Amino acid sequence: MNDHQTPSESVSSAGGKLPGRSIGAILVDSGLLTPENAERIMRLQKEKGLRFGDAAIELRLLKQEDIDDAISRQFEYPYLRKGQSSVSTELIAAYNPFDAQVEALRALRSQLMLRWFGVEADRKVLAIGSSGRSEGRSFLAANLAVVFSQLGERTLLIDADMRNPRQHELFGLKNGSGLSSILSGRGENPVQRVPALLGLSVLPAGPKAPNPQELLGRPAFTQLLEELAPEYDVILIDTPAGDAYADVQTVAVRAGAAMLIARKHLSHVSALRVLSEQLAQSGVAVVGSVLNEF
């Protein structure tokens, strides 16, 4: 270490220099490690030929989860730890990116890129719908938004379920202003960034309105999507249940495409088929259907 290096600047995960900030620098900057302890780790690392993380754990200065978190930040793939954020732990993609369920979400993301988002430049908007309640639309839409943002896509999640909104709860955001405010002409664009998740923004549903279907049917919604499209690579829209309200059709027509969700042991195939046919007749591209086993 020369006179111009700080301890944190000279640390790497395996003794060599990695692109960007080193693990040591990240840990020092986050307050999990002092520069003095970073030097202790480096001395042991050099003496025993260990990786930085293994040396830190041997000295009992850090835990494996600390190292994993630092590595994820080093490769610009950050994830959350319980108690670290107001984001709900229901967002498994944000808290457990190495879980098998999240791998299934990434596989779904790949299919959507192949079938819709990556096909033409103007295909940026997708409605998430289902025939009934409690089938996992909000859960899936939120977790998909997370994995798209982890891919580096500028991602916006719109909560168009103005009857039973959930996205503001899942992401720990305020819902004083939102989609209903914009569509009723009572506010500026209240899109909120999710600070803990890079590249992810949410437009909450906003205050409950007595006429959600009429609001969603206004030209202002189409105009809003057109204005937002240049700012994002992926726009996902959460919708109400299709068997109780026509909102999902209204939203899907404006999005241009929809993905339908069914839940194992709960959804009725006939109801899902009817909804799919109704959307197709309205000119909506039904990108596919997903069996939610979560």
Descriptive account of the structure:
The protein is an alpha/beta fold. It folds into two domains: 23-75; 92-292, P-loop containing nucleotide triphosphate hydrolases (Rossmann fold), CATH 3.40.50.300. It is built from 13 helices and seven strands. β3 and β4 form a beta hairpin. The protein starts with 22 loop residues before the first helix and ends with a strand.
Rg over C-alpha atoms, rounded to the nearest angstrom: 22 Å
Roughly how many Å apart are the termini?
50 Å
**How many distinct folded domains?**
2
Fraction of residues in helix: 40-55%
Extract low-pLDDT stretches: 1-19
Q: What can be said about the biggest beta sheet?
A: 7 strands, mixed
CATH level-1 class of the largest domain: Alpha Beta
Figure out the total of helices: 13
Number of strands: 7
What is the CATH homologous superfamily assignment of the largest domain?
P-loop containing nucleotide triphosphate hydrolases
Give me the strand/helix succession.
HHHHHHEHEHHEEHHEHEHE
Indicate the mean pLDDT.
Answer: 86
Shape field:
elongated
Beta-strand share of residues = 5-15%
- Sheet with the most strands: spatial strand order: 3-4-2-5-1-6-7
Structural class: alpha/beta
CATH topology of the largest domain: Rossmann fold
CATH architectural type of the largest domain = 3-Layer(aba) Sandwich
GO molecular function: ATP binding; protein tyrosine kinase activity
InterPro entries: Bact_polysacc_biosynth/exp, P-loop_NTPase, T2SS_E_N_sf, Tyr_kinase_chain_length_EpsG, Wzc-like_C
Keywords: ATP-binding, Kinase, Nucleotide-binding, Transferase
Protein name: Chain length determinant protein tyrosine kinase EpsG
